[in-house]
Amino acid sequence: MSSDQTHKIYASFFQCLQQISGEPDPNISSILYSSTINAASYTTVLQSHIRNRRFNNVSTPKPTLIITPTKESHVQAVVICAKKLGVHLLIRSGGHDYNGLSYVSHEKTFILLDMYNLHNVSVDISTETAVVEAGAHLGELYYRIGEKSKVHGFPAGVCPTVGVGGHISGGGYGTMIRKYGLSVDHVVDARIVDAEGRVLDRKSMGEDLFWAIRGGGGASFCIVLSYTLKLVHVPKINTVFRIKKTIEENAVDLVYKWQFVAPTTDRDLFLRVILMPETVNNKKTVQATFIAHFLGDSNKLLKIMNKSFQELKVKKDDCLEVSWVESALFWANMDHKTPHEVLLDRHLYTAQYLLRKTDYVQTLIPKHGWESIFNKLVELGKCGFYLNPYGGIMEEIKADATPCPHRAGNLFKIQYWLNYSEDDPELHEKYLNQTRVLHEFMTKFVSKNPRGVFLNYRDLDNIGVMVQTVESGYNTGRVYGEKYFMGNFDRLVKVKTAVDPDNFFRFAQSIPTLPKTLRADVRPFSRI
Predict the structure, then answer these.
(1) Any keyword Aminoacyl-tRNA synthetase (predicted)?
(2) Which of 3.40.462.20, 3.40.50.300, 3.30.160.20, 3.30.300.30 is the CATH number of 238-321+349-457?
(3) 457 part of the active site
(4) pLDDT tens, 454-478?
(5) Would the pTM count as exceeding 0.90?
(6) Sheet holding 353-361, edge to edge
(7) Where are the domains of the chain?
(8) Which of 98, 457, 474, 484 is catalytic?
């Protein structure tokens, strides 16, 4: 886009924002960025929450404008102005989405609403709730909970810089999943801005839309301003450990046994396995890292491990007894004695080049299957796995309780993991091909009809994108929609059609609207 066109859009948007929000000139100009008006600030804001360097190069499409609201009325004005000017709008909270969908669009002109200024976290221990604005990061949420209580927590992810808005609206899970389920299972209210620019809460938006934004991806329906979360109880003493084994140290047998134990053991225990190819003493191998979070002390944990998984040979010396907040530091690969204030650092990690995919395993993998998987990891040499157990309370929550359907019947979830640091297009293609080869290889071991995918780990490579027309969008959207949502997809489409019939909130894998010929039974969203 030429600088003249950019100037024109900036001027039009600036004028519209002033008219709608009634803000004096300095306030609006301080939240509006353009590559031609305030280029240095624009670049800083754009790059500050890009977590995947694949989407931080010259060829990546860039937003014409970036808006960083500091209050709800700014968000309302942005929606109204974007609709009025016919400009495509994207919404970013933390920027951890693996394919950059919150800040990259292939539509000709688009603007970015970056929520990072809206990051207040208010914890009320008397009601055991927290109101968290969408631009907050998980680390901020954990710090504020720990500031108020030693016996409360919240079941969400292990990376402190993940944005609350995307994480929770996409489902959200962490090390307490087997005890407390997904993050969305503990959302009791929300404030949103809808496609008409109205601020709504649970009561005024209605239960259908409230259901949809708890796991269906909020950006398909509205802009989530904040979530009200119900906190969960945690013990004063938590126990964590990290034990590493190579193929030569019986890793294959241990992982084979793990799949029997991890989904069925005491639900206070979450035991992840990371499988990574490595070279040790010039020999290629696979290292299996067993990482635990137990809601209780080490004595209780050792009793459980000695009874159900004595082969791992966990000892007292392997265990660290920590507070819940310290367990969050441990799982974020930091020393658990690190001052808790580090969780407030919104730029804790530098961006890397990364590739991700997911699968669900519903049937135990035989010993020879694990042997072949380890061999394939050695052969490929770069791509690895994060294996995350399910079971526990996940067996008791219905598939349609929220849009997240992958509950009962799943033994564990696989996250395909590949990071690299080289800025080389050829290497990118090579590594991308490794993930494809491994994903194809795993077909016989994972869920089928459909092959399930976790929404927070969006995958464009294997399951496609939406064709952005009303008639074609529904059919192309179903391809990925049924993998993410299974039987919940059609309900999400009906909610979308009712609340946003013109498909204002859209991106490459958003929920589509119904074709106009199929809308007879869809009741329009009531005007409040």
Answers:
(1) no
(2) 3.40.462.20
(3) yes
(4) 999 999 987 888 776 656 788 889 9
(5) yes
(6) 320-322, 238-246, 283-294, 269-280, 384-389, 412-420, 353-361
(7) 3-114, 238-321+349-457
(8) 457
